[in-house]
């Protein structure tokens, strides 16, 4: 029952959040983001939990690092059994630095669009270079800690070498030596080496911090997504102009599952025809075979690999079943394109024929009536080190030399990318 697995951290250079504005706000890309991770655990099919580590570990995601640069967190032991999800808990207070970060929102009383911002000793940002790198402390909630959970598309079954009697058809099977190919019963030798089990954390740093342009206060920090196995990929879409900023962050696991879609719009009317909000809805029922638990808040997304279309129900706020603000469904026509390409999106109600039936099989508060119009968002950044999505290689538009699988529409002009 002992297999040592390396737990690794990975950085994705590009995330956003949702807010209702009373003042001018907009996004910047942070220089670094430091999380303190308190614990990680796997949850078995019978809901028993298996702790991976319990001692707090700090890790800093840096904009200057190569995307998906792995760093060992610590050795962990995973016991034999079948698992359905993995969770990670972290401190509410997040430390970040902002240094020469370009502000991409509308102008406010203190900060104008296009200004380069610096963190100040008072915990705010301004256009003044203080000559030193100041750490800004941002609290993301009123809780002592927060947790993020990823539900596996297929159960993870960890077994002793040569044994799989407790696994079921369709499971991802791992031994101490690596993943087992279900067709051959032998080790899966991807790229000539056994496919090992690891923990990867994905962060979309592009425009990941929201700044109050009237006061210089920092209101939002980038979120972390957790996956079991090799890091997946991410696509960042957006539109930044003199009228405001719209950002959409899509993070995929290594089996092309769309883990989450997080969007922001500043101000809220910047992109007509676009549902502004998140895809983490309160779920009261799920389709047969879905790993998601009922009566809890989960990301509900649909990705069609053949067409590149993405769909998800949008809520403006959903802390619980009785306090969920439905907006509509966002339907993207094709997000699997090179950078600088255009992906059209429209906001519709649940009666639109373009909504995949699987989304309607979930139980959640009926979504809103949608919003008339069609919005065009630009593919701004792709991070895909294993070419999972097949749209960012050395010959692709915007490819960044020295950063395998990174394509960007902006290059070094914005925040050192």
What's this entry about, in short?
1% of the residues lie in helices and 45% in strands. The chain contains one helix and 32 strands.
Structural features, described:
With 417 residues, the protein is mainly β. It has one domain. 1% of the residues lie in helices and 45% in strands. A hairpin with a 2-residue loop joins strand 14 and strand 15. The termini are far apart.
List the helices and strands and how they pair.
Blueprint: E1 4-9, E2 25-28, E3 32-44, E4 49-53, E5 57-62, E6 71-77, E7 81-91, E8 93-97, E9 99-102, E10 116-119, E11 125-126, E12 136-139, E13 145-158, E14 172-175, E15 178-180, E16 189-190, E17 193-194, E18 199-203, E19 209-212, E20 218-220, E21 224-228, E22 233-241, E23 244-252, E24 258-266, E25 280-283, E26 296-299, E27 302-303, E28 310-315, E29 326-332, E30 342-348, H1 357-360, E31 371-383, E32 406-408
Parallel strand pairs: 13-14
Antiparallel strand pairs: 1-6, 2-19, 3-4, 3-5, 3-7, 3-8, 7-13, 8-12, 9-10, 10-11, 14-15, 16-17, 18-21, 19-20, 22-23, 22-31, 23-24, 25-26, 27-28, 28-29, 29-30, 30-31, 31-32
Keywords:
417 residues; mainly beta; nine-stranded mixed sheet; nine-stranded antiparallel sheet; globular; disordered N terminus
Q: Helicity, in percent?
A: under 10%
Shape, per Cα inertia axes:
globular
Largest sheet: 9 strands, mixed
Low-confidence stretches are 1-21, 70-74
Mean pLDDT: 84
Radius of gyration (Å): 21 Å
Number of strands: 32
Helix and strand content put the structural class at mainly beta
Strand residue percentage: 35-45%
For the termini, the CA-CA separation is: 44 Å
Number of helices: 1
Number of individual domains: 1
């Amino acid at each position: 029952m002992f297999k040592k697995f390396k737990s690794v951290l990975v950085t994705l250079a590009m995330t956003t959040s949702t807010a209702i504005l009373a003042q001018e706000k907009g996004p910047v890309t942070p220089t670094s983001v430091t999380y303190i991770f308190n614990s990680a655990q796997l949850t078995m099919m019978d809901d028993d939990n298996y702790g991976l580590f319990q001692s707090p570990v700090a890790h800093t995601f840096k904009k200057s690092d190569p995307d998906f640069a792995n760093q060992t967190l610590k050795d962990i032991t995973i016991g034999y059994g079948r698992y359905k999800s993995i969770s990670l808990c972290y401190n509410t207070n997040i430390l970040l630095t902002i240094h020469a970060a370009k502000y991409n929102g509308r102008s406010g009383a203190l900060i104008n669009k296009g200004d380069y911002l610096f963190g100040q000793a008072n915990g705010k940002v301004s256009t003044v270079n203080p000559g030193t790198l100041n750490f800004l402390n941002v609290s993301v909630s009123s809780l002592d800690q927060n947790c993020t959970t990823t539900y596996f598309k297929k159960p993870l079954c960890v077994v002793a070498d040569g044994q799989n009697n407790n696994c079921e058809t369709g499971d991802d099977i791992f031994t101490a030596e690596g993943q087992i190919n279900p067709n051959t019963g032998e080790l899966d030798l991807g790229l000539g080496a056994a496919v090992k089990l690891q923990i990867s954390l994905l962060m979309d740093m592009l425009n990941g911090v929201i700044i109050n342009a009237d006061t210089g206060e920092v209101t939002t920090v980038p979120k972390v997504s957790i996956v079991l196995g090799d890091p997946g990929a991410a696509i960042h879409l957006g539109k930044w102009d003199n009228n405001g900023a719209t950002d959409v962050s899509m993070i995929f696991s290594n089996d092309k599952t769309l883990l989450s879609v997080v969007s922001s719009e500043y101000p809220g009317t910047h992109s007509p025809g676009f549902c502004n909000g998140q895809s983490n809805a309160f779920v009261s029922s799920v389709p047969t075979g879905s790993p998601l638990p009922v009566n809890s808040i989960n990301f509900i997304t649909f990705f069609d690999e053949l067409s590149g279309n993405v769909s998800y129900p949008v809520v403006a706020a959903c802390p619980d079943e009785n306090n969920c603000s439905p907006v509509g469904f966002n339907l993207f026509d094709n997000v699997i394109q090179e950078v600088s390409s255009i992906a059209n999106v429209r906001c519709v109600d649940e009666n639109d024929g373009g909504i995949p039936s699987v989304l309607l099989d979930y139980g959640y508060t009926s979504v809103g009536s949608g919003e008339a119009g069609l919005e065009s968002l630009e593919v701004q950044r792709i991070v895909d080190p294993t070419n999972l999505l097949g749209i960012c290689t050395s010959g692709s538009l915007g490819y960044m030399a020295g950063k395998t699988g990174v394509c960007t529409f902006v290059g070094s002009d914005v925040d050192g990318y």
